[in-house]
Amino acid sequence: MLRHTYAGQDCSLARSLEVIGERWTLLIIRSALLGTTRFDGFLSHLDIARNVLATRLARLVEHGVMERVPYQDKPVRHEYRLTPAGRDLTRAVIALMQWGDRNLPQELGPPRRADHVGCDGPVHVELRCAQCGRAVHDEEVDVRRNR
């Protein structure tokens, strides 16, 4: 985890990385977006150590990215569901997938794709100007200090 790595920095990206910036955390979120909800499901999909998974899931629950919900009473068992804040990471995960597809291509092509549930068309993350509504290319973006 990146705890305290960015102390003193006034940066939204740094704050985000404190919660989701560790490698396993983003893979857990990806698995949740693919429908995994149970601890054993995450274990089998990710080949992650039990203690690491438990720690990462607890942190995601602590920060409101996932919620821990009982699905069985005897014995009590829980599943992990994305909260609205967790679902809000869909764009970031798809953007990283698409970056990898473009910049780190595999011979067999992309292992996954994002499709629109309504029509099965491919979904792509894009930048769009909030003022004029026009699609914006990377070269047209100027990141500035706000304060």
List the topology elements.
Elements: H1 12-20, H2 23-33, H3 39-46, H4 50-62, E1 66-72, E2 77-82, H5 84-87, H6 90-103, E3 127-128, E4 135-136
Antiparallel strand pairs: 1-2, 3-4
Summarize the structure in words:
Helices cover 40% and strands 12% of the residues. It is built from 6 helices and 4 strands; from the N terminus they run ααααββααββ. β3 (127-128) and β4 form a beta hairpin. The chain has helices at residues 12-20, 23-33, 39-46, 50-62, 84-87, 90-103, and strands at 66-72, 77-82, 127-128, 135-136. The mean pLDDT is 92. It has 147 residues and is an alpha+beta fold. It has a two-stranded antiparallel sheet. A two-stranded antiparallel ribbon has the order 3-4. It has 2 domains: 12-87, Winged helix-like DNA-binding domain superfamily/Winged helix DNA-binding domain (Arc Repressor Mutant, subunit A, Orthogonal Bundle), CATH 1.10.10.10; 90-140, no CATH class. The chain is globular, with a radius of gyration of 18 Å. Keywords: DNA-binding, Transcription, Transcription regulation. Pfam families: HxlR.
